[in-house]
Amino acid sequence: MNMAVMHSRAQSQIEPQPGTGVPTTPMVEFQNVSKRFGAGGTGTEVVALEAVNLIVPRGSVTGIIGRSGAGKSTLIRLVNGLEKPTSGHVLVDGTDVAVLDEKNLRSVRRSIGMIFQHFNLLSSRTAFDNIALPLEIAGIDKQTIEKRVTPLLDLVGLSDKRNRYPSELSGGQKQRIGIARALATEPKLLLSDEATSALDPETTRSILALLQKINRELGLTVLLITHEMEVIKTIAHHVAVIDGGRIVEQGPTFDVFTGHKHETTQALLSGLAGMHLPEFLMSRMTDVAAPGSRVILRVVFKGENATEPMLARLGSDLGIEVNIMAGAVDEIAGRPFGMLVVSLLADGDQLKRARDFLADHGLSSEVLGYVR
Ligand SMILES: Nc1ncnc2c1ncn2[C@@H]1O[C@H](COP(=O)(O)OP(=O)(O)O)[C@@H](O)[C@H]1O
Ligand SMILES: [Mg+2]
Hints:
Layout: H1 3-14, E1 28-37, E2 46-56, E3 61-65, H2 72-79, E4 87-92, E5 95-96, H3 102-110, E6 112-116, H4 127-137, H5 142-155, H6 171-183, E7 189-193, H7 201-218, E8 221-226, H8 229-235, E9 238-243, E10 246-252, H9 253-258, H10 263-269, H11 279-282, E11 294-302, H12 308-318, E12 321-332, E13 335-345, H13 348-360, E14 364-371
Parallel strand pairs: 3-8, 3-9, 6-7, 7-8
Antiparallel strand pairs: 1-2, 1-4, 4-5, 9-10, 11-13, 11-14, 12-13
Helix pairs in contact: 4-5, 4-6, 5-6, 6-7, 12-13
The structure holds adenosine-5'-diphosphate and magnesium ion.
């Protein structure tokens, strides 16, 4: 066992459940997992995942974000045992899914619900019968099925569509049926593979709100994979960034996206408000200061720290002239997060004093370049 694994194991075992002081295992844990396709065959080998260590805390909404081909779907298929790791272990609620026989694997799968990008509903079945399907397969009697499915239709807001066929439903409604079906076996874990990628932004928001409600009200752990930043910043408490089969960063969403960033994370963030520099600045900016040039600074504020009074005080208290060039406020995991791009007329010494002053007031800053 390597150090990274030992570290994550130790951490996960001592982390108490909120309020109880009782240690709890994560809902999902990847221990040094690699997955290769075509290994041993004659064709070329594809490394889909490499040395993945990942923790999905119990009760969390955890997101995995990465570009197409990064290994996201493979990762999720390892959780429900559809694929087996080439090396390493995948634990679901403390159980290693790779070593289970068919019978025990079926039982673990019943405790995991899954939703898909293209909903995967059966067109010949009504909304009710689609939701009932996993229960029929599990051999549950009609009366119990009726008792389970009716409240699920209500939960997803589609009681009136009970007898409609998929072709009579909108994309968002189909995904609601998909979600109800995933919940039918009363799982403890819900997996989502790009569940909102085929939906328009407004419908995406309503589906994300539904997933959030399910997480909060039913206490279900949600593991979702997506290539959309919007999804992560709206509902994920924890995030892992995956690139080329490797997890390059993971942690609380707010920290990962406001903290020290891997270049893949930076690229994913580029759509976020305030990350893009205006073209007029980009084209004029240089890496080195020239006499009389202005410093371009990105000031980041997290949570409740207000920037503008602090910037005003750079002028009044330190005598440094500040111009605001661009800026925006956004929200990540429910907390405000903002960035301002400012220019300062300051020499090296004044710049240091300005940045120290901002840091003392909880505002981090980064020198982007210089303009004349
Ligand atoms: N069954 C398979 N056989 C061979 N290669 C595969 C298989 N499944 C996935 N891959 C490869 O593994 C890599 C990761 O794929 P995938 O997990 O689907 O990525 P993502 O979901 O992030 O787009 C890709 O290079 C893909 O071509
Ligand atoms: Mg995929």
